[in-house]
Amino acid sequence: MIVTGDIAEVRAARWGGGNLSWGFVPTMGYLHAGHLALVERAIAENERTAVSIYVNPTQFGPREDFSSYPRALTQDMALLENAGVDLVFTPSDSVMYPVGFQTAVAVPELSMLLEGASRPGHFAGVATVVAKLFNIVQPTRAYFGQKDAQQSVVLGRMVTDLNFPVDLIVCPTVREHDGLAMSSRNAYLFLAERTAAVVLYQALTAAKEALLAGQRDGPALRQLIEKRVAAEPLARLDYAAVVHPHTLTELTVVEESALLLLAVFMGRTRLIDNMLVELAG
Ligand code: AMP
Q1: For the whole model, what pTM was predicted?
Q2: Alpha carbon of 143 to ligand 1 centroid (Å)
Q3: 35 lines ligand 1 (CB under 6 A)
Q4: What would the pLDDT profile of 139-196 be if each residue is shown by its tens digit?
């Protein structure tokens, strides 16, 4: 496994073996089974696989957790080596954002909504760093988690609009035994918060069940999520939404499908989750 922070070395590995298919999994590290599911899928579907580990400062707001974001590089490397990854790109900030850097990729409309409304600038940071990573790694396919549903929608728009020659593949959310979506940020939770954090999954499940049982009213489904979260004293809702899976606009009435999302503060830790519901027929 090649581990490098050097762009020229990534390109040499990428093209040195000829035109092989490369899968790519961008991450911020502190890897868990959710990340590893993306890695395994990339390995299964491509001749070579690259993973990046980079905690991108430009996607964090000034009062967010950039400096405390969990890091475990040695353990991450062992997991990736064991999985059979060919290349790990671990750039420094000066490689990604050298002096004079000023270009940005904006996907303004999709980036204003939901997460973007709570985290201004977040998706511009994400789109810019992922565009850079795609240009550096030049993957055939790139793998993202449904866990960050809006991120996949924003990046899908970017890939289409800017003609990146890469297939985006969105993989299912991997969950803990009680349903909590795996996240590097779960490490911040105190024991009582960790127990209570199951409310995100339970609220989404309740809304999904109501939808499947015939409740098609978007606001009523959103209120159901809101009520479930409000019943958990350790949770504070940031937002809940019932939206169209592609446009991310709020649905008054659910027709074929809906994306149910929420963001919740458990103490100082902000968690997100979502469920995509497709209605048969
Ligand atoms: P992160 O390191 O949090 O930036 O995540 C890197 C990638 O892993 C993103 O595409 C995430 O959507 C994905 N990911 C994170 N958590 C999960 C999960 N529980 N299940 C599936 N994918 C995930």
Answers
A1: 0.98
A2: 9
A3: yes
A4: 999 999 999 999 999 999 999 999 999 999 999 999 999 999 999 999 999 999 999 9
